[in-house]
Amino acid sequence: MTRVDIAELVGIRSRHPEAVAEAAGRRRRRPGLIGESGRLMIVAADHPGRGALAVGDSRLAMANRLDLLERLCLALSRPGVDGVLATADILDDLLLLGALDDKIVVGSMNRGGLAGASFELDDRFTGHRAQDLARLGFDAGKLLLRIDYQDPGSLDTLHSTARAVDEMAERRLPVFVEPFICHRIDGRLRNDLRAEAVTRSIAIASGLAGTSAYTWLKVPVTENPDDMAAVMETSTLPAVILGGEIGDDQHGAYEKWRSALQLPTVQGLVVGRSLLYPPGGDVAGAVDTAVGLL
């Protein structure tokens, strides 16, 4: 693991908070989202901002910020990794660590729908705003769009999402929209990964806002991976595959991703916990295998 000095980070934050903006101003940016490979590989770490700290059977795995930052720095150092998706606190740390040069930086925008909360689907935009991403010189934003036809909170999220897409497009900043049709089962929110539900979610997300010119889709592999080809015919928007939590079947997940990556609209992968906390703990090996799929 790359070593991170928490005391040094805290010292900078407490004595020189302006250092975050200064580090953002110094960061070397690369031109465009898609690099030399023609594909995109992003490591996601925005889960803690929703209070979603569990990995597998460990309920607080992502709560140790030192451990998470070291895992992220290692993942970002691997060949073929294009960048990171995270909330402001984590991206600020990575800026101070100098880990974001020549990387794509994606800010997470709506984090108000806390995991397990009664208001989970009234998903307020409590993270990065479009103006924040532009001010910091970041490369893109990401938002989560969960839709439950039985929950009025979904309408507020739909409206807020459309306006956020407009604000990003005004600044010519790409935005990754991650849509799901959801249902509450025994009081818990569940994403519907059946082909019809994923198809409908893609259609809804693609039609939001006054332009789709800067909109990307971030989509899961369907319950039956063989359905992905038909599902991805729903839109011409560029898409990345969402890794999600995969449990112990790492090989099976890789094969699902490999198949989806052959589809014409799919441009890459955005994967988080399954690479940062893989079975066996080999972060570098998990990341390198995922990069190899591209």
TrEMBL record:
It comes from the Bacteria. It holds the Pfam family Cgl0159. Residues 38-291 form the Cgl0159-like domain. This is Deoxyribose-phosphate aldolase. It comes from Streptomyces amakusaensis.
